[in-house]
## 1
Amino acid sequence: MQTALANDVDGIVGECGGAMMCATCHCYVDEAWTDRTGPRHEREDDMLEGAASEVTAASRLSCQIRLTPDLDGLVVHLPDEQF
Ligand code: FES
């Protein structure tokens, strides 16, 4: 989420600043990358219940994806809306 905001990625809002309180950083991790980003946390599941767009198995709160060198080139898809 912070990297997306710093690079003006349209469609990531991050209203709560990464405190896992808003779900406006919802993204869909591309299938090719899900094993590297790992599973979402139980608290993410709770927050994603309030997401504005459909939640799928690929859904993550982007603020909870810790970027590491392993994730260089990570592909995520964005929902139609965040509110
Ligand atoms: S920025 Fe609010 S939950 Fe990720």
Note: The chain has a mean pLDDT of 96.
## 2
Amino acid sequence: MRLLIIGGSGKTGRELIKQSLEEGHIVTAILRKPQKLNIKHPNLKLIQGDVLDPSSISSVFKHQEAVLSVLGHKKFIIPSNILSKGTSNIIEAMKQGNIKRLICVTALGINDSKYKLGLYYTLFTIPFILYFYFKDKEKQEDMITASDLDWTIVRPGHFIFGRKTESYRHGHNLGHVILTKMISRADVAHFMLKELKENKYIHQKPGITY
Ligand SMILES: NC(=O)c1ccc[n+]([C@@H]2O[C@H](COP(=O)([O-])OP(=O)(O)OC[C@H]3O[C@@H](n4cnc5c(N)ncnc54)[C@H](OP(=O)(O)O)[C@@H]3O)[C@@H](O)[C@H]2O)c1
């Protein structure tokens, strides 16, 4: 398929690009700094763009079949709308480009999965570090669910570096109110590409953890 990947220079994004190319997809990645990505492949096209600047991304959406977003950032402790504003621009560009399929990573702990990242996140990390980030993620999810796209929201547990195992749990009611469940970024990328083929969770928000 012709895939457009957002967040491809990030830790999950690099895995996603790598696995997409291994599976034979034709990949376009929108990156703020294309020089940051050290993957070269005949089926990979890098476009410089910022999701906060619609004019820098809108033309890239034409002729794509699906959009995969692993957008994220590290400005956790200040109020920000990077995820929601960026996603609103992505949704608008998808409409203009006539693309229906969106698979977007958020996190366990958002909206109706509240508390599912475990007690440490619920009592410490979310209120004291990720408060604004998670508020923005809630809005991001709300925008996607209100759209008329064929969306899937993927909610991973806590990320660990690790290899692709292809052996993980996915679906509803994952995570735990006490324990923090983990997942590798490589397996999140694997799950996104699996969902792209199977379309099992259209208009759903599956979690993914070990
Ligand atoms: N860490 C965890 O335990 C955990 C658990 C569950 C879910 N998640 C979520 O999973 C997602 C991916 O995580 P990650 O660790 O792979 O994130 P990451 O390494 O921080 O990568 C984020 C990506 O988003 C890009 N980006 C940020 N602002 C952008 C903009 N304005 N325009 C275009 N691209 C922009 C970054 O580009 P630059 O390289 O230019 O900055 C980077 O490619 C995040 O949403 C994260 O919150 C994380």
Note: The CA atoms of residues 177 and 196 lie 29 Å apart.
